[in-house]
């Protein structure tokens, strides 16, 4: 397992913990989603989706680096990594345009994820 692969997995697990802490109201909801959450229902919907998405990415990364047995083909994992690379590249732009410093600082992390996921999708070795 390469260092950048470990880094990706650690960041994804960190984001899972963050989304869970927001869902449990340990982090104030006005600090995320651009401060535009206007109801608890919306918070649960958006954060639930974000948590599920990050858990899925974590599972795919764990399959890619052989921590868990892959249930997807090598090509599917490669395409999922590319899809998430595009997602995080767009998310980086959104973070740079955010109003809060916390979200702006996330741009560095999401840019790292975008680059490493792109790199990961290009250098995937199938068995």
Observed structural traits:
single chain; mainly alpha
Describe the structure.
The protein is mainly α. Helix content is 72%, strand content 0%. The chain contains four helices and no strands. The chain has helices at residues 3-23, 40-64, 74-96, 101-122. Helix 2 packs across helix 3. The radius of gyration is 15 Å and the shape is globular.
Q: Outline of this structure?
A:
The chain has 127 residues and is mainly alpha-helical. 72% of the residues lie in helices and 0% in strands. The protein contains four helices and no strands.
Helix content class: over 70%
Q: Give the SSE order as H and E letters.
A: HHHH
**Beta fraction:** under 5%
Measured distance between first and last alpha carbons:
15 Å
Number of strands: 0
Q: Helical segment tally?
A: 4
Low-confidence regions: none
Structural class: mainly alpha
Principal-axes shape call: globular
SSE map:
Blueprint: H1 3-23, H2 40-64, H3 74-96, H4 101-122
Helix pairs in contact: 1-2, 1-4, 2-3, 3-4
């Amino acid at each position: 397992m390469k260092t950048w692969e470990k880094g990706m997995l650690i960041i994804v697990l960190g984001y899972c913990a963050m989304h869970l802490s927001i869902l449990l109201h340990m982090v104030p909801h006005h600090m995320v989603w651009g401060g535009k959450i206007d109801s608890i229902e919306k918070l649960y919907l958006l954060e639930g989706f974000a948590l599920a998405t990050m858990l899925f990415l974590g599972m795919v990364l764990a399959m890619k680096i052989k921590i868990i047995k892959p249930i997807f083909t090598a090509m599917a994992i490669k395409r999922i990594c590319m899809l998430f690379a595009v997602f995080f590249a767009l998310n980086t732009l959104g973070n740079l345009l955010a109003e809060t410093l916390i979200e702006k600082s996330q741009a560095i992390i999401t840019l790292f994820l975008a680059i490493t996921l792109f790199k990961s999708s290009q250098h995937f070795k199938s068995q």
